[in-house]
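Work Package 3 (structural annotation) set out to generate three-dimensional models for the target panel prioritized at the project kickoff. During this period the team completed the workflow that converts sequence records into discrete structure tokens, so that structures can be stored uniformly alongside our sequence database. As a representative example, we reproduce one entry of 136 residues exactly as it appears in the project archive.
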Amino acid sequence: MSRRVTAVVALRMQFLGVSLKALLRESSLSIPQLREAVQRYREKNDLQGEAVTLLRLGVAEADLGNVDNARSSLTDAAKKMRALNDVLGTWTAHFTLSLVETAVGQPREAIVQLEKALALIDGESNAELLSHLQPV
């Protein structure tokens, strides 16, 4: 299942011009290090750092096929990004969740996540977000 999750996520992210390595910022951090970083940001009440690191952790977990951990991290990232009014971050978390759900054969949940991502795009008010979504 790990290869399948990785392949689907990587293909969809490449279509958007964002590779998994780019989303992970070509980080050499391991999953335990990312979890530790989340905890440190949480202790410092750094919501932005926590949200971004949760997103990176979710992608790393998905890359390894750890579906439940990926779902948990990406769901938490989406909530925190929304609290920060970070539309692109929230969109990325929901879109990535949709890829994970697609890869593991959960099309209904994938659609739910895609609908949440698409709801963030409400026309011209999110022109900046739309500019990031152009295919390569």
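The CA atoms of residues 88 and 131 lie 10 Å apart.
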